[in-house]
Design brief:
Blueprint (H helix, E strand, L loop, with lengths): L4 H11 L4 E4 L6 H4 L8 E4 L3 H15 L3 E5 L3 H4 L2 H9 L4 E7 L15 H5 L5 E4 L6 H13 L5 E7 H5 L24 H13 L3 E5 L1 H6 L2 H11 L3 E3 L14 E3 L7 H9 L2 E5 L5 H4 L10 E6 L13 E4 L2 H16 L8 H13 L14 H11 L5 E4 L3 H9 L8 E2 L10 H11 L5 E6 H6 L4 H6 L5 E6 L4 H10 L16 H7 L3 E5 L5 H9 L6 E6 L23 H8 L20
Parallel strand pairs: 1-2, 1-3, 3-4, 4-6, 5-6, 7-8, 7-10, 8-9, 10-11, 11-12, 13-14, 13-15, 15-16, 16-18, 17-18
Length: 594
């Protein structure tokens, strides 16, 4: 039986275990859309290719499986650039299938031609233009293997239209992928593992610094076992929220620019950082040369390029976070047979004092205005085991990470490294497709929401009921915050207004349920009503205080020692007696790292 390249693509996706793809058809990819009709693979029609890419990301975040996005040539493929870059930064397993002009037309500036492999080379883990029809099964098998192993990431396969229309001499799905130049290291070096165990037992102020790699590796049980064995405090980065339960007594919360005060300061004062699947991102470290100055560093990462990239590793270990953490535990048990466990009582007394003295704040007044933290707190109280919170990028993202407790991995989805506004709406749709039994609570800002709000049509027509909670402050809130703090209240191009669009009317136009809330006393009832709707998407327009800023905050480029806990503290420092001119102290000025 003859099989075309297009049929081979879809058949290969079936062999790869794909149950759903997110895409948008067009001329060059059109041959691949015909066999989808007869395939068990579900196709979710996005309204924009960027939306399809973020849906694939959301699916991968929520399930741990490879997300698949499909687009045509030229603008279809270039519209996938942002999701691919986002997936690359956050190590999301994703395969992009794109159409291309016929092989004879490549390089001739044909209609809808773009060099997609060239464009995406820096933002994919691997890419390839498949020019031989017989190579299709192997190319797709390799793509899924590369995307999902080692440090996960996006892979793009570009198919010229004539390759899709060609007939294969034979279809053979490879049972095993053989890539001689690609062999990710899984197990850590034994000597380094033993050194890590020795450093832990010798420390007095250790901190486990759990990064997003622990989520990707499925290392939650190993991280918990390591922490509990010696009562080690744990911080979970923005990308690792949920890998260690926030409800656990050893949890300190999130570090970083808008992290929990105790988590940030614990890292600064530590004498040992046990970095598991973390990359010492600038948003965590603040000014790098002032970060954790007295700390020895154990750095575990499956990507050797991350070891020592930003911070010198005293004990470097290349390997999978789950496997290596288990190895460290085994080495600890061996050494504890002849060495006493460290006494961390004084360290924990200090940490408990910090936690008690520096809680998160919500200064909600009964008469209003509605504070965004009040909304987020109420959402957090309704989040149940198995539910998923997805955010866009901005102030709402930070409040959602701060004020909601995450006790399970893959219960928190956001764009961390690239910081992509517009991520939330399509990513929430993808997450719900991947885990249809989970309640998906999408917390977005009014600016971020408007970048991809057209995907509400996808959610409605594909029967994907997500609850979208818009933290509407009528402005580009994070930009407004920086202009407030660093630009002397010179607000430039941040006003979105509260009424354009009217989100309740917009919801109605898309066939969704639309609700509005602007009073503190109505938040609980509004959320309960939204959560009672299960047959269509719900949009809630929470109109909140426009002047509210996110704290704690470490000014960009400043040391984490300069963490500001509240607006009142910011004002007090800016107007201190030793600052008579009223100018921001050097440590509070906007740095080079934005």
């Amino acid at each position: 039986m003859e099989i075309t390249g297009a049929q081979a693509v879809i058949k290969s996706l079936e062999h790869a275990g794909v149950d759903v793809v997110f895409g948008h058809p067009g001329g060059a990819i059109l041959p691949a859309y015909d066999p989808i009709i007869d395939s068990p693979v579900r196709h979710v029609l996005a309204r924009h290719e960027q939306g399809a890419g973020h849906m694939a990301e959301g699916y991968a975040h929520a399930t741990g499986r490879v997300g698949v996005a499909v687009a045509t040539s030229g603008p279809g493929g270039t519209n996938l650039v942002t999701p691919l870059a986002d997936a690359m930064m956050d190590s999301i397993p994703m395969v992009a299938i794109t159409g291309q002009v016929p092989r004879a037309a490549v390089g001739g500036d044909a209609f809808q031609e773009a060099d997609l492999t060239g464009i995406t080379l820096p933002i994919t883990k691997h890419n390839e233009m498949v020019t031989d029809p017989d190579r299709i099964p192997a190319a797709i098998a390799e793509a899924f293997h590369i995307a999902s192993t080692g440090r996960p990431g996006p892979v793009l396969l570009d198919f010229p239209k004539d390759v899709l229309n060609a007939v294969l001499s034979t279809f053979e799905w490879p049972e095993r992928v053989h890539l001689p130049g690609y062999k990710p290291t899984v197990r850590g070096h034994g000597k380094m593992v033993r050194e890590a165990a020795s450093s832990i037992l010798a420390s007095k102020r250790p901190v486990i610094y759990a990064g997003g790699g622990t989520i990707k590796a499925g290392a939650q049980a190993e991280v918990a076992a390591l922490a509990e064995r010696l009562d080690l405090p744990v911080v979970t980065t923005l990308m690792a929220r949920g890998v260690f339960p926030d409800s656990h007594p050893l949890a300190l919360g999130m570090p970083g620019m808008h992290g929990h005060w105790a988590a940030v300061t614990a890292m600064q004062r530590s004498d040992l950082l046990i970095a598991l699947g973390a990359r010492f991102d600038d948003r965590v470290t603040g000014r790098l040369d002032a970060f954790a100055p007295d700390a020895e560093v154990i750095h575990v990462d499956v990507d050797p390029a991350e070891i020592g990239k930003n911070r010198h590793a005293d004990v470097p270990i290349v390997g999978d976070a789950k496997t290596v953490t288990a190895q460290i535990l085994e080495a600890l048990e061996s050494q504890l047979e002849r060495t006493a466990a460290p006494d961390l009582t004084p360290w924990w007394e200090t940490l408990r004092t910090w936690q008690a003295e520096h809680p998160l704040r919500n200064d909600q007044q009964p008469e209003g205005p509605l504070k965004p933290q009040t909304v987020i707190d109420a959402i957090g109280r309704r989040k149940r085991v198995g539910d998923i919170v997805v955010t866009g990028v901005g102030q709402h993202q930070m409040w959602a990470s701060q004020h909601i407790a995450y006790d399970e991995p893959r219960s928190w989805i956001n764009s961390g490294g690239l910081g992509t506004m517009g991520f939330c709406v399509p990513a929430a749709i993808g997450a719900k497709v991947g885990r249809p039994d989970a309640t998906v609570l999408a917390v977005d800002g009014d600016g971020s929401f408007q970048m991809t709000q057209q995907e509400l049509a996808t959610a409605r027509l594909e029967n994907i009921p997500v609850v979208f909670c818009i933290i509407n402050n009528g402005a580009l809130g994070m930009v407004r915050q920086w202009q407030n703090l660093f630009y002397d209240n010179r607000f430039s191009q941040i006003d979105l207004t509260f009424d354009c669009p009217d989100f309740v009317k917009l919801a109605d136009a898309f066939g969704c349920e639309g609700l509005r809330c602007d009073a503190p006393e109505d938040v609980e009832a509004t959320l309960d009503k939204a959560l009672s709707v299960t047959d269509r998407p719900v949009i809630i327009d929470f109109r909140v205080d426009q002047t509210e800023n996110v704290f704690p905050m470490v000014p960009a480029g400043a040391s984490n020692d300069d963490i500001i806990e509240s607006a009142a503290e910011w004002d007090a420092r800016a107007t201190a007696p030793d600052n008579p001119d009223g100018e921001l102290p050097e440590s509070m000025r906007e740095g080079d790292v934005v």
